[in-house]
Amino acid sequence: MSRATKGQWLIKDVSNFSDKLNLALNRFEQENVGLRQFCAETIFDAIFNTVFGQSDRNAPFNPLRTYKNFEYYHKYFNYMWLGLPKKFMPGIMDTLCDMCQQPSAEELLSREDCSEYIKRGIRHLLENGQTEADVIGHNLVMLHVNYNTFRMAFWVLYYLLRDAEAWKHLSEEIEELSDKTSLSTGDVDRLRVLDSIVQESARLSSGVFMVRYVTEDTMFKTPDNKEFLIRKGDRVAMYPPAIHKDPNIFADPLKFQFDRFISKVFYKDGEIVKNPVMPFGTICPGKRLALLQLKLFIINVVSNFDVKLNDGETTELDNTYHGHEVLPPTNDVQMTIKRKRENLSSLGCFS
Ligand code: HEM
């Protein structure tokens, strides 16, 4: 089986996501709301229902309840990973138990619109003697990786809302799609302003460490010719955000520049930097799916809503979460959002 989500599976997921997103955006009627809350009720809702099949909003395992539980759980995620005792994380076990109130494996397998990767995962686990509890754990990991897309959506919209020029250029680019009723993945890939905005937001908000196990003794040479022995059995953590914020690669690295990635090549010490932005590390199989979902979300918001941040509303990246793939904001920001028309025009992606 291929490691990346691609081909017919990718298209099926993206098309399923388009339907769920359409439902979530159509249901959304508040005009004054936090940007993060908006993202939770729209893109996270749509992703959740794409992964598990359309959920009953009153069932214990539903998008908003899971979003709230994840908010709490992620605060302590690094400590859990480091193996600190539970007593330092009050309430964490109750939150985990709540997140485990999931539909049975049998029910998920019977849902027509449950994603193929969850179904395959469940079948694989059960065929190899794993338990219902293992299936629940696997489901939570799938949710965790998909949660990154929601976190990134917040930053893309936040940076866009603070940069009128970026919003204008993106609106013009999206306007060119106005004669289409559905998009192909190629249509989405051709949106260069959108791609640059997404890459720039990812550059700024990534907090990831890539951890690798060393399989043989290796001499590592730094650019200033220092040599280090990395021993077999060691673990190495690489930190892409150090590249993302390197002033020798990116001028004014802490500033959001919406067009930074349009037809640009980046250099360090006279040499081309091949991968200047690595928010997905090197082995994330969900990269293509996540980027398509994220871009479809932005396209649908920009084309259907007038949005503005309320006066004085700002936030920062929460640096206490470093190690998470995408950093969350320190606080939500309030915005005003109005539909441009009664019936939203839904731009989905179908081929
Ligand atoms: C914006 C969204 C996402 C971001 C920023 C992100 C980022 C990452 C990063 C940094 C890694 C570690 C890569 C490395 O060590 O080289 C990773 C691994 C992984 N991601 Fe993603 N990811 C995202 C969305 C997704 C989605 C949607 C899926 C599944 C549909 C997914 C599935 C996975 C899996 C299964 C791994 C573990 C791969 C392995 O260990 O072999 N990710 N992701």
Give a structural overview.
By secondary structure, this protein is mainly α. The chain has one domain (7-208, 239-349): Cytochrome p450 (Orthogonal Bundle), CATH 1.10.630. The chain contains 13 helices and 11 strands. The strands form 5 sheets. Strands 1-10-9 form a 3-stranded antiparallel sheet. It has a two-stranded parallel sheet with strand order 2-11. A hairpin with a 5-residue loop joins strand 4 and strand 5 (227-230). Bound molecules: protoporphyrin IX containing FE. The site of protoporphyrin IX containing FE (HEM) has 20 residues, from helix 8 and helix 13. Keywords: Heme, Iron, Lipid metabolism, Metal-binding, Steroid metabolism. It holds the Pfam family p450. This is DgyrCDS4559. One of its GO terms (molecular function) is steroid hydroxylase activity.
Supply the key terms.
11 strands, Cyt_P450, DgyrCDS4559, mainly alpha, Cytochrome p450, globular
Whole-number total of structural domains: 1
Percent of residues in helices comes to 40-55%
* CATH homologous superfamily identity: Cytochrome P450
Proportion of residues in extended strands:
5-15%
Q: Rough shape? A: globular
State mean pLDDT (0 to 100 scale).
93
Biggest sheet, open or closed, and with what strands and sense?
3 strands, antiparallel
> Count of DSSP helices?
13
CATH class: Mainly Alpha
Would you give the CATH topology?
Cytochrome p450
How far the N terminus sits from the C terminus, by CA atoms, comes to 21 Å
The whole-angstrom Rg is 21 Å
CATH architecture: Orthogonal Bundle
Task: Provide the succession of SSEs.
Answer: HEHHHHHHHHEHHEEEEHEEHEEE
Unreliably modeled segments: none
Largest sheet: spatial strand order = 1-10-9
Number of strands: 11
Pfam families: p450 (PF00067)
Family: Belongs to the cytochrome P450 family.
GO biological process, one term: bile acid biosynthetic process
Cofactor: heme
